Amino acid sequence: MRGIDVRVQVIGFSDVERHALNTVFRLSREREVSYGPWRSASGMLEEVPPVLLVDGDCAEAVLVQAREPRAGQRLIWVGEHAPEHAWRVVARPIAWAGLLHDLDASFAATQSDSGFLDLDVSRPAPLDMDLGEFPSAEVRRALVVGIAEHESGYLRERLTHAAVSFIDEAPSTERAAECMAQHHYLCGVFNLDDHHIDAWGLMQLFRERYPQAMTLATTEHAGPFAGWWHRRRVRVHTKRLGISGLLARPLQPPAISRYLEML
Fold first, then answer.
1. pTM
2. The domain 141-261 is classified under which CATH number: 3.40.50.2300, 3.20.20.80, 2.60.40.10, 3.40.30.10?
């Protein structure tokens, strides 16, 4: 059975938001409706991307506002001052899961008579895995992503002391996404300094999937020896994502305990 490959032209957005969007693209590859970045084909007539995702705060947004609507294109506008022909207008922080579900439903409707679509859009399914039903919320479980072995031992000890019975450690983006598809979490800890994982994108997805959970980020850039610009930038980004707490690395017992005591 063939699936639907939807290309999205992206205009604007911060590095953090593009990280999250790239994670969404990657996780959608095995789904019936998959998404990816749109690129104009060189030397050919200009194609119209089926989806145009615009950051309303960027300079290029003015050009999009002035442009005539393109037939068959869905314009998703993030922020204020959206043009009247916008298909969806969303606010920050962006709820990628809900937006993806709306796109799924829309493309399912246009393909319903094609003979090859078999997609259940009766409820959100933002990832490429069968999310199933969450186990009982009584199970106290934490997700630890990208934490080095010499730090994870102490972190596991503190989580256990906070009555967290199950702790899943994920060394990669793919493993973290699999864990989020299978379990309910009350806490997630993400190492922003591990450049082998997409920590920012994973935190975005974690916040959307578990809005009531505690989300903690750890980084050397939050420590007293980091440059003031790095400290400010990481604090601004984590605040925008709605992160519960930002912890300096190496991890300090008082700082960890202050948050975990609230679980």
1. 0.51
2. 3.40.50.2300
